[in-house]
From TrEMBL:
Sorted UniProt keywords: Amino-acid transport, ATP-binding, Nucleotide-binding, Transport
Lineage of producing organism: Bacteria, Bacillati, Actinomycetota, Actinomycetes, Kitasatosporales
Organism field: Kitasatospora arboriphila
Protein name as it appears in the record: ABC transporter ATP-binding protein
Molecular function via GO: ATP binding
Alphabetized PROSITE patterns for the sequence: ABC_TRANSPORTER_2
SMART domains on file: AAA
């Protein structure tokens, strides 16, 4: 079942068109990849979907419902969470206060209930909840950033380069976590430069080049036809 449909998304920064007429979709209970070289438009695509940058054109459908006119806050309420590039935790704030930002707008009792669920799932996070987030390792911070996104109980998580700056072991741990997220039907749209992680997690992916979709389909096919290496080597 399709959770997210993006039709003809265009985002321009002044005269520079970063994303040009992108169409893609993501399915329930799966991780869908977005691949491409630096500057291909991956981050802008996620920000455009989440209403964080102005779209020049494009329709966004969530479970078939048109949410194009929704601002970011309304999209979060509708079940779309963004886990941004570089994790964007507040390093001086406690882990708990960072997590609570993910359940902003809910009553205190509901926030507590969601925190309890998070602590049940991530035992080590519970133990360290009063520590500043900046004290954690990169991999731990990524886990907390994902946990914060999950605090909004999303049906779709937009996840930007979770492997960035992490050790190989930490990348595999993030991969383990992403596999568990989809088990309850949650969809993940994953921007990644780490092809190994995409091959591990994603059945399908979209390859972006110069702000456009250069290829899309089963990851195995994209690798076999050379679409993935072309994108990274700038041949698309
Ligand atoms: P990376 O892997 O380097 O993050 P990306 O595929 O995510 O790359 P984007 O960050 O989406 O690419 O950038 C796409 C293009 O839009 C680039 O040419 C970039 O310089 C430009 N761009 C992105 N954000 C802005 C902005 N706020 N103002 C002007 N240009 C921007």
């Amino acid at each position: 079942m399709t959770v997210l449909t993006v039709e003809n998304l265009t985002v321009a920064f002044g005269p520079a068109v970063a994303v040009r007429g992108i169409s893609l979709h993501a399915e329930r209970g799966t991780v869908t990849g977005i691949l491409g070289a630096n500057g291909a438009g991956k981050t802008t695509t996620l920000l455009g979907i989440h209403g964080r940058v102005r779209r020049s054109s494009g329709r966004i459908l969530l479970d078939g419902q048109d949410v194009t006119g929704h601002d970011t806050a309304a999209l979060v309420r509708a079940g779309v969470a963004l886990c941004p590039e570089n994790r964007r935790l507040f390093p001086a704030m406690t882990i708990e206060d960072n997590l609570l930002l993910g359940a902003d707008g809910h009553g205190r009792r509901e926030q507590r209930r969601r925190l309890a669920g998070t602590y049940e799932r991530f035992g080590w996070v519970a133990e360290r909840r009063a520590e500043p987030a900046g004290r954690l390792s990169g991999g731990q911070q990524q886990t907390v950033a994902i946990a914060r996104a999950l605090m909004s109980r999303p049906r779709l998580v937009l996840l930007d380069e979770p492997s960035s700056g992490l050790s190989p072991v930490a990348v595999e741990e993030v991969g383990d976590l992403l596999e568990t997220i989809t088990l309850d039907g949650t969809a993940v749209l994953l921007v990644e430069q780490n092809v190994h992680l995409v091959r591990r997690l994603c059945r399908t992916a979209w390859v972006l080049a110069h702000g456009e979709v250069a290829a899309g389909g089963p990851v195995a096919d994209l690798v076999r036809t050379g679409a993935v290496s072309d994108a990274y080597l700038g041949r698309s």
